[in-house]
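tool_log.txt
---
The assistant was asked to compare two proteins side by side. It first ran the structure predictor on the initial sequence, then on the second. Raw inputs and outputs are pasted verbatim so the downstream comparison step can read them without reformatting.
(1)
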Amino acid sequence: MARWRSFFGTLLCCNPAPLWWGIAALACALALASLVLTHLLRLAPCHLCILQRFLFLVLAVFASTAALSSARPRLLYRFTAVGTILTALFGLGVAGYQSLLQWRPESFTCGGAELSPLERFVEWLASLSETLFLPTGFCSDPGLVLFGLTLANWAFLAYAGIAAVGFWAFVRIQAPLTR
């Protein structure tokens, strides 16, 4: 047992690439799961759902680049690691806002006569690929509920975990570099 702990401790302490690859794989899996669930269960994703799907794809790109650049120039690694963390935090905010809309739809609004900049961005994404990014639902509709949590709640937890692991990987690998 101690041998495995030592192996993984050394691996994760000195080389953050496995963590970044894990984040990238998780983000891809979550984006793919949202597509599959939408198709199989005939779910109607809203603008915020589509934005979260897009952010998972952006996370995958940032985390993959962080994994590839972890042994290369420090500036690229820092940029992509911080980009991953900030994207996860933005996704956390979007998923949190959608969770609030679903819990208290009478207290918060989504949509209206004029589209917000984020909704216009999602509409632009839909013009590029309707299969991936076409919003057809309402943000306050909880849709699928798994173990008492909506998909927005699960996305909130995923973004929080990704942000925490990304921050830990970034700080953990920066410590030996500054000595």
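(2)
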Amino acid sequence: MRNSVEIIIFIFFAVSFSFISCKSDSQHSDAPNSQKEETLMSNQKAALEKETAWDGDIESEMVKDTIEDATELIVDIKEEKKLTQEKIIPAKKKPAKKKPKAKKKLGKIVFEEKEYDFGKINEGDTITHKFMFTNQGNGPLEVLSADATCGCTRPSFPFIPVAPGEKGYIGVEYISITKEGYQKPEITVKSSGSPELTTLFLTGYVTPKPKEETAVKLDTIIPIKTSNKK
């Protein structure tokens, strides 16, 4: 459209220039006709300028519409490209959250006393005692072993698991044969709960037996003969 307008303007000015040249050669012999021609040219110029302005408005609207169409096309291309990439490249899966492991229920062994003083005994006496405990955990408690530091002490323990809140005991037998003086044997208890190891003590004093005095019988004395020389 713009090229057409430029061509029309070029033709108009070319014709006008030729007409003016012809009028100049005739030395402007006809003045009234010249005025009419100038008026006609002015009118034609105004009409042409008006048409050109109208064509400019049309061209501006066309350019605006073209830009809008191009913008919409670019947006459509971007959207299509995005969809294509989503189809080609699979979305990364988020790692599944690990469920926290449930805490294992454990027993807890709590003794009423960890040391027993049996006082003063005589050598050869036997002492028995029970170390009472309670399972204060939230799971069953199993006593796995009970070991003493010497053969004079014999521990015993329950073989059945103790339920939470229930009581049990470690039995101890102490034999004082051949023992004398201050004594403190140890018993180490191992359980499936907390604490795993617990040490118990027996304390006391063993009085040794008095030594037996040998009785001398008179009839067992053998007389010694002596010789009298004169």
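---
observation on (2): The chain has two helices and nine strands. The chain has two domains: 2-88, 109-207.
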